[in-house]
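Protein modeling request. Please complete all fields; requests missing the sequence field cannot be processed.
Requester role: graduate student
Desired output: 3D structure, token encoding
Chains: 1
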Amino acid sequence: QDAHAIENIARWYDYWQERPGTGDRVNGGGVNIVFSESNTHYRGEENYRRSGEVDALRIPKDGYYSHKVMWDGWVNNEKPGIHILGHWNYAAGVVKNMYVVSSAAKVELFVNGKSMGMGEQRNRFLFTFKNIVWQPGSIKAIGYDANGKKLATAIHETAGSPYALRLTQISAVNSFTANGADLTLFEIEVVDKLGRRCPTALNMIHFTLKGPATWRGGMAQGPDNFILSDTLPVECGVNRILIRATDQPGVIILTANATGLKTARMQISSKPFKQVNGLSLQMPTDGLKPLLDKGPTPAAPSFTAIRTTLKVKATKAGANSDKAVASYDDNEASDWVNDGQLATAWVEYELENVSAVSEVALKLNNFRTRTYPVKISVDGQVVFKDTTTRNLGYFTARFAPAKGRIIKIELYATGEIKEVMGTEVNGKKLDDGVTRNDANTKGIFSIIEAEFYETKQ
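Delivered output (457 residues):
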């Protein structure tokens, strides 16, 4: 769960940082096509609890809450959000990194009321607290704005020993209808004496169903995913199951049992399905209302420009200078590359106007597998010197605004290659930039796109 949510934040931050108001290269929107677990993209038949922001029965995961925090607003974050990844039920002696996703400017973590300090921020929304020693009790995260004003709070408590089962019906607006097709969903949880879900519980649950309904069951990890089984485990203390109505209305009783736990029982009734000569005037969508809580799309621009793209007038390079234009031509299928010598691993860009440069975004070849020690200068003044990270496309170097016109990007040492995330599960090689066999060339420097920005104060 931690790793899955962190990967979500890293991947989707690339889109968030290119939102409207951030220059000419803008992400206008996106769709997460694998919202729930499925076999999409050849993930294999036994993938439940491993992919998607919710599972196949729509139980939210940490990735779901991470997206909720990141994308709360038309363009920019409008409502402060915060969520602690994972839970707070561990064994004595456990020391681990704790992660918080928040739209706040800074986040402080508390264990049983004692501050663990401020989190290390990356990808804007992820805050890491290293080597936190587990103690039974509570863990709390507080998000603050840049001026220290409290914005949002999240708390996890240590749940006690598993004590009982709890059944909850998750129903649509319409009640359960005896039409032979209607489904209703039930959530089953293992809870402690205070009613708190036990996040490490893996109890096996046996269900019995009485009345005019058909068992459709749920799923869990296992050889056959427990499909149609009336006995299946909870995972992380929770699971869900489905029952289907018959064509006869009546009282339905669902019972859940587990060894050593208090039994849960729920009674519902299916209502008659009105039809005349086999036809009905009732549609499945009757009674469902659109969710309009967000309000209308803003009539005026829904964003404020926070940075502007700086235009390049001319370039020169240590090698292949005539091809340097390919490094800023907005064509991600082309690149500039030097001759493999460290002495020639540089490009110099002349801007159209003198500007207060504050950010340089770089798409470097082999962005997934290679890191580059890069130095950036503005009119001869070094403003950035660090090693780029392996990423999913673009690396952004941020620094204090430096006024000038000539920007030089150079490699000051040889990069490091590491084969990571080489192929998808279907065998297809993941995109790593322009195809070229330069893995063993020590002084190679290849820029697919370079973009320059001035941040508005």
